[in-house]
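Lecture 7, part 2: worked example. A protein chain together with nicotinamide-adenine-dinucleotide.
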Amino acid sequence: MIGLKVYEMNPVTFSVIGLGSRGLGAYAPYATAHPDQMRIVAVADLVPARRQKAAAQFGLDPGAVFGSAEELLARPRLSDAIIIATQDRTHVTYALKALELGYDILLEKPVSPDKDECLRLLEAAKGSGSTVAVCHVLRYTPFYRTIKELVDRGAIGRLMNIDAVEGVGYFHMAHSFVRGNWRREDLTSPMLLQKSCHDMDILRFIVGHPCESVSSTGTLSFFKEEMAPEGAAGRCLAPCPVKDGCPFDCEKIYLTNESTGALHHPGTWPSDTVSDDTSPQAIRQALEDGPYGCCVFHCDNDVVDHQVCTLNFAGGINATFTMTGFSKENHRTIRLFGTEGELYGDTMDANLHLKRFDSDEELIPIAPTHSGHGGGDEQIMTDFIKALRGQGSLPSTLDASIESHLICFACEESRHSGGALKPVWG
Ligand SMILES: NC(=O)c1ccc[n+]([C@@H]2O[C@H](COP(=O)([O-])OP(=O)(O)OC[C@H]3O[C@@H](n4cnc5c(N)ncnc54)[C@H](O)[C@@H]3O)[C@@H](O)[C@H]2O)c1
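Predicted complex, written out as structure tokens:
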């Protein structure tokens, strides 16, 4: 077991459990790009091909490669920090064990779809001496950081209300929330907690006051059996009379579409989720018999495809938030209204638009980024490592992350009761 942690000069050592899109795809590459800051010394995953890939990438001995998170966590602490990037319903179990072993933790969101589990982790983390950071990566993006700075310095006067939209993107909706891992609440999380806990977190961050009450409505209205066009086949690769005009056709999304297909973007998301072997032949084979080849109207999904929330913050500030699966792109927009002006941003643009009542529109440039989630995936690693080295503080504590989860739980309670106003606390 490693004793006292000495981070200042040496790279911080990491274990990674869950070597999927997030663990291996989003965070582990930081170790390759910044060997002076991060070294991966142990990994765990259920899938042998993912373990082998990680072992080769990070030069790990077989003794540092585990067949499950349980196996890795059964050992004394193997590294300074641990990344927990398994599926939603396992996070807290592993995080509690990791705390017991003395790891600092970078924990994927959502913390848990169970409110009691979230509160249990918060309690355990208090006084543990470990840092626990939840991957609310939007807090780490230049886009939202610039908005926060502008609001805090009074660029639009006193903030009154916000209108925010998350366009999930029709292909992302179909991929993750109709055919894929997050299609059912009982397997992972409700859509709002899964996809939009980021947005609740960002709204709370920008407003700077607690959210007191919420209301929400939303349904699964389109991606279901009765909406299937007449004669639609159960699987896209079977003869299907509506295939040509269907944007959700798996062959388009995963192979031929110019923005998403493997023929144009080999080895990238979303087609790399369909098959670990990312050759077009292997992807086509996986579409023949796997879940990603299922017609979007004939899956066993139950998460909502659109939802609207109203958030009432202390100080009389309120916000509306819309999650929709029916946008062309996967992007977010936000419009903030203040007593002296308004501010508009779209995560696809290079600038924010500041419109003060007393002057012409001003374009505020957003620093360009290259990593995923508008630069958040890389910046969270930089800030997490800095915080462990005592060189800075994290922009969000576990308390703040759990608070945004409580907002989601209250919205879900409201949605299930037909949109009634619900308190966030208590
Ligand atoms: N922060 C974000 O913006 C963001 C974005 C997408 C997903 N997520 C979250 O990240 C988490 C992982 O998502 P993903 O897209 O990487 O999923 P994924 O399915 O690609 O990866 C999960 C990995 O965990 C492994 N795994 C499952 N059980 C395990 C066990 N017992 N021991 C070891 N490994 C195990 C799986 O084999 C898989 O490789 C999810 O909770 C998801 O909600 C966060």
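The radius of gyration is 22 Å. The pocket of nicotinamide-adenine-dinucleotide is lined by residues 17-23, 44-47, 50, 68-69, 85-88, 108-109, 135, 137, 181, 194, 373 (CB under 6 Å). Keep this in mind for problem set question 3.
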